[in-house]
Amino acid sequence: MKRRAFLSLTGKVGATxxxxxxxxxxxxxxxxxxxxxxxxxxxxxxxxxxxxxxAQCLTLDTHVDAPLVMLRPGFDLxxxxxxxxxxxxxxxxxxxxxxxxxxxxxxxxxxxxRTAAGHxxxxxxxxxxxxxxxxxxGSHPEAALLATEPDDLLRAAQKETRAIFIGMENAxxxxxxxxxxxxxxxxxxxxxxxxxxxxxxxxxxxxxxxxPNEHGGLSPFGxxxxxxxNRLGMMxxxxxxxxxxxxxxxxxxxxxxxxxHSSCRTLCNHPRNLTDDQLRALRDCGGVAHMTMFNAYxxxxxxxxxxxxxxxxxxTRFGGHELSPAEQIERREAMKTLNRDFPVKLNTxxxxxxHIDHAVKIAGIDHVGIGTDFDGGGGVVGCLDASQLPAIxxxxxxxxxxxxxxxxxxxGNTLRVxxxxxxxxx
Length: 426
Ligand SMILES: [Zn+2]
Known about the structure:
With 426 residues, the protein is an alpha/beta fold. The chain folds into two domains: 42-301 and 345-425, TIM Barrel; 304-344, no CATH class. Helix content is 44%, strand content 9%. Strands 1, 2, 3, 4, 5 and 6 form a six-stranded parallel beta sheet that branches. β7 (258-259), α11 and β8 form a beta-alpha-beta unit. α2 (44-56) crosses α16 (390-398) and α13 runs antiparallel to α14.
């Protein structure tokens, strides 16, 4: 059932950046380098084995922000773009090239006002993002299918097509309306990342410095949300939540929980990363921790003051109002210039793989997966877009992972935990 030529382990490299139309943070921390990249130290024999093994794996990336790029006027998911020239990391041709069978496309939005007006705005934005995913995937029936069940991944692989799942990043669009959990489930969402940078009505976030302990974890409404997600068989995603929220979810959830895109705090001390105790807790509940390539969660990044200043200027110039299509293009070009003039130092594929090693050491091979965060700030030297996923396989083979290990990391573990969550619902 699988397929296709191996590619681009030594292929295209260069500057990349993610453009989130609503995500200045992603823009600020995004992958951008003009430094020459070393070719992976890989023998032809290793490349051949990596190609064969990668092709035999069912690969599922649990978090990409492609829908933000899909909002751009004229963007076509069926066309091949370039990370540097187009500030895009995911499209169907590159998923095919990279042997990516499936990905969770995120209905993501930065946290906004927690008022009736703010919640109405978040609902409208969520509707727009669901629409853009449905339309974008639906217009390429030969290349992709909109997927809602674990078995859809197998179905897609058999048909040599891509399975596009939906996850929501930030429960802000729930407002305070429990009924909306099922509404979003009906539209295809199969996990909800409970929060983003700031607290919402559901829970405390790990990075809300103004109110670090507003709810003390999950709010009473958040507890209802977790129960409702359990009832529906949705995956509760604790990436970005506070440690207290993590504990509450663990205590309350009848089903295993996941982290769709988080790395290891022991290797990179960021509050969004998972502690060793959290990795063990995910193991003990049957969950899965998906390692992410977001630059600042792989290793600390020191931003040059010139870049910080230039970013602030860009925000002032384009922030605070809805951008016209022409302004969006203008901003994209300004971002490319900024990336060229003040490149961010990108972390490497080897550093990313160190997180996988550590998570496997602490949680075990059955509890680790991958959520790249492409188009949301993800990407490392050696793996800059969806076409370069086989480089991860090659790196892990070099580190001694077996074919069975890779099958678990690339999707087997995620499918298992998802099925368990559905069983618990039934
Ligand atoms: Zn995120």
